[in-house]
Amino acid sequence: MPDDAAPETLQFGWEEWISLPDLGVPALRAKVDTGARTSALHAFDIETFGSQARPKVRFTVHPIPGRDDLVIPCSANIVDRREVASSNGEKEMRYVIESALLVNGQKWPIEITLTNRSTMTSRMLLGRQAMKDHISIAATDRFLQPELSYDVYHTSRMREVAPQRALRICVLSREDNYSTRRLVEEGEKRGHSVEVINTTRCYMAINALAPEVHYDGKRLPRFDAVIPRIGASITPYGAAIIRQFETIGTYCVNGAAGITASRDKLYAHQIMARARIGMPNTAFASSPRDTANIISLVGTTPLIVKLLESTQGKGVVLAETKKAAESVIDAFRGLKANFLVQSFVKEAAGEDIRCLVIGGKVVASMKRTGAEGDFRSNLHRGGTAKSVRITKEERETAVRAARAFDLNMAGVDLLRSESGPKVLEVNSSPGFEGIETSTNKNIVGKLYEQIEARVRPVPIRRRKTSTSGSADKQT
């Protein structure tokens, strides 16, 4: 039917099957009530979010009466908030949204108020505003339009019809830098609500029945996903906060275990060794009696001496001779510092490759070259970067390294050696500025695609409450 053609008038009985495609509700039995001005939808867990200029509301729907184990998560823009009087005269302030109503192939926008209709036999009520010029009423009949079926909620088709609802995202970060700003910018561009939460200002209520995360004196709302940007100096506390979100059931892009393991350089190398991932020969000892022993374990000089707590190239020393290596090792030991000794990959010539892995795929890679006279290629130390094409072996190595730490997002740094790629480090909070600038790719957009795929709203089947009184969810 052409857009400018008059819609066909539909005849409704007092009860009809309808669809709300914008909300991902393909089948719903609705009561038609010309005495009500606005339509009403059964909704619970109603929660506002978003900016004051464009407020939104999240809620969940039980589409089938008597089936509270079937839940559809929804979100929409708020168009109004008004007082509504129910049939028994009680008044209630309700949020008003706009959504498309679909019946027999015809679709038009209607206003819907959100309220708890759990005591009503119909999950939705259609009021006068929804009728407009599209409907005539036969008050003594029902189901004059094609009947739908609740069976649709038990098929794979639900993933196809589920809308990309707005998500509420938490970015755990203490810094106002490029990466944090890009996460907010890209998330809001995609219609999500993104909140930056200072990790160190979070605190936890730890209990078996209702674990919570609090912030600045208030309980944090229910987030769809958490993007950790945990600084190295607060790794233990940051990991504890992430574990709390994991306990609640929030999807965390990177889990606490992976972040903690990647930050512990000794443990990280042990994990990579167990996964048979290529890396420079590495040795560690608390206090060897003979410095020469630790040197011989990695080969000959030159070699690298690296503090376990080093970041951004700090605490990394190149010892070009055996005497220099002995001096550096003795100095570190005198400071009671923990350190690794690694073989030096000379053929890398001061260059390494950063592979950005998201969702088990390398989405971008760049070659970093150290500043003049510096063997370290860190961009924070004056290095430069450019896009680079990596080999199949390098790609597979980067993916395997991220998987070894169970990280959904990781910056994998590797060297090109004569015997194949050697992984230097797996970074659980990689920066986006250098790789987005050098590759001209929207890396943050790729991250949001992965988040949306993981938390896409589809009907949730809740298991029945067990004898212990607990219940959980499964998709």
From TrEMBL:
Gene (name only): lysX
UniProt superkingdom: Bacteria
Family: In the C-terminal section; belongs to the RimK family.
GO biological process: SOS response; translation
Name listed for the protein in its UniProt record: Probable alpha-L-glutamate ligase
Pfam families the record matches: RimK (PF08443), Rimk_N (PF18030), Zn_protease (PF05618)
Gene3D superfamilies per record: 3.40.50.20, Acid Proteases, ATP-grasp fold, A domain, ATP-grasp fold, B domain
Single GO cellular component term: cytoplasm
